[in-house]
Amino acid sequence: MMLFTKLLLAHLIGDFLLQPLRWVIHKEANKITSKYLYLHVLLHAALMMLLLWDLSYWKIVVAITLSHYVLDLAKLYANPLFKRKTIPFFIDQVLHVAVLYACVYFENLYEHTLLLIDMINWPLVTAIVFVSYPTAIIMGVLLEGMSSKIELDHKSLPNAGKYIGIIERLFVLTFIILGRWEAIGLLITAKSVFRFNDLKESNNRKLTEYILIGTLLSFGFAIIAGILYMNFSS
């Protein structure tokens, strides 16, 4: 596990902390001919050797370095095929981590993967999934009749409300699992403070009621999911 952790740390440092934006722009513009592509890959190799500090791991370092080059190069040529750059970015990151995992546990990869699967807390996974998009969709259906009666005089970011709701429900679920119910009250207070100016400026009773109902539903679903999880896992 320590080997995987050190390799993951090297990846995080090399891909995020020590990769300037100008490197990224140059790589996207020049692709395979970009000097920063090769400098970036060599930097990863140096970071891995520095953190491992053991020459006996040189085969793993070489394998990861070569795979990093191939994956980064593939992402550079795949980027134009996607409208949203977040898709190839996350695919690339998942594949990088998968390579690290495969290189570390290559001798018993199948057995170790099965062990990890057996360790998954499925009730927790179900609770997390439920408070994300399923709850957002359920709330959309429940509030559909009300939302059509709300007149908004300001523009908002696309799907901002949905993502805010998902994040707040994940926080609530986490607080319940940790037994920190008082933190839920602080979260409600913080949200109320941020919403106060909008409601004050709009002076719209319907909007106020709509936001209040939506907030109570969002927190309510998360609390129910948290309580059910705690009961099933105990």
From TrEMBL:
Q: Which UniProt keywords apply?
A: Membrane, Transmembrane, Transmembrane helix
Q: Which Pfam families match?
A: DUF3307
Keyword hit for Nucleus: no
- TM segment ranges: 36-53, 90-110, 122-143, 170-190, 210-232
* InterPro entries xrefs: Phage_phiKZ_Orf197 (IPR021737)
Do the record's keywords include Repressor?
Answer: no
Signal peptide coordinates: none
Q: What name has this protein been given in UniProt? A: DUF3307 domain-containing protein
